[in-house]
Structure formats: structure tokens, C-alpha cells
Amino acid sequence: MKSSVVHVLLISFLFFSLSMVESQSSDSCASKLTVARLIPFVNTTFLGCLTPLRSANFVLRYAKAGPSLWSFVLSAADPKSYVAVGFSGDGRMVGSSAMAGWITGSGAGIAKQYSLGGKKSGECPPDQGALLLQGTPVVALQSSRLYLAFQLNVDQPPPYLIFAVGPGNGFPSSPTFLLPEHRDENSISVNYTAPGECVRAIAGG
């Protein structure tokens, strides 16, 4: 009898532990943004929300923070690499600008803008691009999730967003900070006047 009780308690504990790990490492548009205290400019009440890259558990929250100011928060299950979101006027990667963020081996968060001039790493230089950033981007790691947050000075962001996640343990590094080739990507179009509404876009080259 005691053995059965112990087994039941052990199984219950394992299920509880697994559910706790899953809840800590997951995110969804229905859940509250748990890192809001780390991102001072985020409005956690009036954010639109999308899930654009399910293979990496991407969740993108966005909000119009002012007349010409937009806030973006991208979260993903920690990929041990970089996450990126590009902004394009026609849905093509080439010619667009992107924000990428990652956590270094020492635990430091790094965010950089990239000009996507081609499909090779050397054609996408860091610290260049057409995005007008407001303030300093934030990169944070909490409960096995990576967060990249930034603000753009723009009347309305470009309608196409391009998402990418880097290869495992593929971090941009000094001195070039070039992005290793991504392991997965997706492109969507966003209707900013209808929060959360998007359609899958056909991504060109």
C-alpha cells in the first residue's frame, strides 16, 4: 500500500514538474508578457499579437506607442542562436532591414540592425539598415525564452515582416558580427489597423 502511494506521489510530482517547465518556457498571445518589467517602453495592455514561426515558438507583440512610434517584442523558445525580424515593403528579404538579437555565452544580450543586401552572410552587414530606432533595444533571457524588444520611429511599419532563427550554437561574433545562415524562416503580411490579423506571404528572394 505504501509503495502504491509513493508511486502515485512520484508520478504526480513528475507531471507537475513537466508542466512547470513547459509553462515557463512557453509563450502565447493569450498569456501575459512576463518580462514587461525589463522593457520599460512596453504597453502590455494594447498589444497586437502574432505567432509567425511556430517551429521556433515565435510570438510577436506590437503596439502603436505614439503618433510616429511603434513598439515590438519578439519572443522565442531559447534557440541557442539568434532570432530576427525583418521589415520589407514588398515581402522580399533582399533590400529589407532587420533587427536581430541573441544572448552570448557570457550571458550578455546583443541586438543589432542588419541591412539585408543579399542571401549570403557577407551581404548583410550589421549596424546598417533603414530602420529608425528609438532608444536602445532590449535583449533578455528568462525562463528559457529569448526576448528581443525595440521601438521604431515610423508613421506605420512596412506591411511585410520576415522572421528567421539561426542554427543551433550559431552566434554572430566579433569582429564581423555576420549572421550565420538561418535554419528556418517565414514571411507574413500584417494589417496594423486590425491587431493580430495577418496572412501568410509568399516570400521572394
TrEMBL record:
Origin superkingdom: Eukaryota
Species this protein is from: Musa troglodytarum
Signal peptide positions (record): 1-23
GO cellular component, one term: membrane
Main location group: membrane
Name of the protein: DOMON domain
Domain DOMON residues, every copy: 56-166
Location of this chain's protein in the cell: Membrane
UniProt xrefs under InterPro entries: DOH_DOMON, DOMON_domain
Keyword annotations of the record: Membrane, Signal, Transport
